């Protein structure tokens, strides 16, 4: 396998990893409201929609700052740090 083939293989593996990670995340997010409804007691009144709104708000703010962070610390280190944080 040549260098171009290795680059393509790395891109495909990275894409599959993100696909599986976000598939699991979306599945959990979609059933969250149902689980919270079945768990509701007199002491707990939460909403899965509120928590999802907070998560997506933080994602939006992070996406606005991401290009600056990548420029300052570089793409390799920023991917490593973001993987740890996520």
Automatic annotation (TrEMBL):
It is a multi-pass membrane protein. The chain crosses the membrane at residues 7-25. Keywords: Glycoprotein, Membrane, Transmembrane, Transmembrane helix. It is found in: Membrane. GO terms for cellular component: membrane. PANTHER family: ET TRANSLATION PRODUCT-RELATED, UNC93-LIKE PROTEIN MFSD11. This is UNC93-like protein MFSD11. It comes from Austrofundulus limnaeus. The lineage of its organism: Eukaryota, Metazoa, Chordata, Craniata, Vertebrata.
């Amino acid at each position: 396998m040549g260098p171009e083939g290795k680059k393509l293989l790395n891109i495909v593996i990275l894409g599959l990893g993100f696909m599986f990670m976000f598939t699991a995340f979306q599945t959990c997010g979609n059933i969250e409201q149902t689980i919270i409804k079945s768990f509701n007691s007199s002491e707990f009144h939460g909403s899965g929609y509120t928590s999802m709104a907070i998560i997506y708000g933080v994602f939006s703010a992070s996406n606005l700052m991401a290009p600056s962070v990548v420029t300052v610390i570089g793409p390799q280190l920023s991917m490593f740090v973001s993987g740890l944080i996520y």
